[in-house]
């Protein structure tokens, strides 16, 4: 008790003395000996750059950053919805809002989903664990949308629990057996992705042990190699031939292409049109990934809003917009951005990072503060056995339901009864760049 009284009596003088001494050193020491250099350096070299350069210095290897780029791109914030009130009346609150969409309307077996939101690709083994894949399948099935296998191995439990399964036809050697292709509700040929471009990668046996190796057909000691390109695609007709093969092998389900948004986007789209695809998935520059070199995340790929606007304009110019479904992804975290993308012409939006965080929800307490939450979900994560797939599936279901309900409220406020009725005329642009990119009139123009 006496010690506490003494502390209180001398607290202010002690703090004053320490602060005064520190301030004196700060004001008189030469810069090269002054701790203030940390402040000026941190402004010039932000903490992200500093930590990443330290990781490079430690290993001398390429570092791989999870979840995409922290860089700020032009986004959908420059658009605002125009509410219905008098000249256009709001929808009666009792009216039901239709959220169903169709992917590949010209396919023999079009893919019909209950909502315009899809789960982005997260591959088994190359990214996430078996438990995560099962949670993704169950959560999407509960709301009537699709999950995407990604570039990993084909997990039988994925097909068992998913209502709608999009099989990603990757550049690696696995998951291409005809018996696997027949189980898909749609097939997406992976050409590129927003956070990784079309770069190659490999996973060592140490980072890929267990069941995934067997499913992917890897020999003991063999790396899992994801090439930069499909070995069967060397000339223009090759893509068309591959599309025809997959369409026949899978029994007429929609066949699509996944692209990274390039400055040569229109040329890439023309190749897709020539190949007679049923849908095109475009990954904007804000897309996430399990881990990719920062240079690919920060300096490759058009921002999502640029890619979407250019794609819509080109497909309309070629008069195929109503025949080829357009899926867009990359940096979608809110219902409003998803609805804005649909208004600009996307047929559906796919997300991965936001749903992944939502499904872990309170489970992150199993990891933090001593481990990052990704250790719960990665195939090689230290805490993957602690991940509860049933709880995660429930959270994922709630996430999608909440998103769609909020979007339905907005559709009602626009005076519509279907999410497919929302279009660019329901938008106004708040700045000249957004208006120029999207062709949406400025808010101060009539």
From TrEMBL:
<keyword id="KW-0560">Oxidoreductase</keyword>
<dbReference type="InterPro" id="IPR024188">
    <property type="entry name" value="GltB"/>
</dbReference>
<dbReference type="InterPro" id="IPR002932">
    <property type="entry name" value="Glu_synthdom"/>
</dbReference>
<dbReference type="InterPro" id="IPR013785">
    <property type="entry name" value="Aldolase_TIM"/>
</dbReference>
<dbReference type="Pfam" id="PF01645">
    <property type="entry name" value="Glu_synthase"/>
</dbReference>
<feature type="domain" description="Glutamate synthase">
    <location>
        <begin position="107"/>
        <end position="416"/>
    </location>
</feature>
<comment type="similarity">
    <text>Belongs to the glutamate synthase family.</text>
</comment>
<dbReference type="GO" id="GO:0016491">
    <property type="term" value="F:oxidoreductase activity"/>
</dbReference>
<protein>
    <submittedName>
        <fullName>FMN-binding glutamate synthase family protein</fullName>
        <ecNumber>1.4.-.-</ecNumber>
    </submittedName>
</protein>
